[in-house]
Write a structure and sequence with these properties.
With 125 residues, the protein is mainly β. The chain has 2 helices and 10 strands, in the order ββββββββαβαβ.
């Protein structure tokens, strides 16, 4: 994470998820909105080889904190969930290009507590 201080860009954090392993391709896709950053991990093997996950970071008390690891409810091997990410307000769109035998899908997650009761940490909408 880089922030601009007195006209200079300074690295203020390096985001490395706790569950990350070699070959997960962490951060190939990134979505940023305000105090939230979402990193892809589309080669993560949570539910079989290359099923994919996304890592949510939030800025809390001046520190970037890993808040949640997201996964689609239909996860299966080789889906590559989180291949591409987009965030707008309290909503996150994550693609799964190889779901259902390469048919593909997009999943919307919300961080809106009033919709998901998730404390703002994100849930599939």
């Amino acid at each position: 994470v880089f922030e601009k201080w007195n006209g200079q860009w300074i690295q203020t954090a390096k985001l490395v998820p706790r569950g990350a392993r070699a070959g997960d391709w962490i951060g190939e896709a990134v979505a940023v909105h305000g105090d939230r950053i979402v990193l892809s991990g589309h080669h993560h093997d949570m539910v079989g080889s290359n099923s994919g996950v996304a890592y949510v970071y939030e800025l809390r008390a001046g520190q970037w904190v890993e808040a949640k690891m997201l996964q689609t409810s239909a996860a299966s091997p080789n889906d590559e969930f989180s291949f591409a990410l987009a965030i707008s307000g309290s909503n996150l769109l994550a693609t799964t290009p190889y779901e259902a035998g390469n048919v593909g899908a997009a999943t919307v997650f919300t961080f809106a507590e009033e919709l998901c009761g998730c404390g703002g940490a994100g849930c599939e909408a």
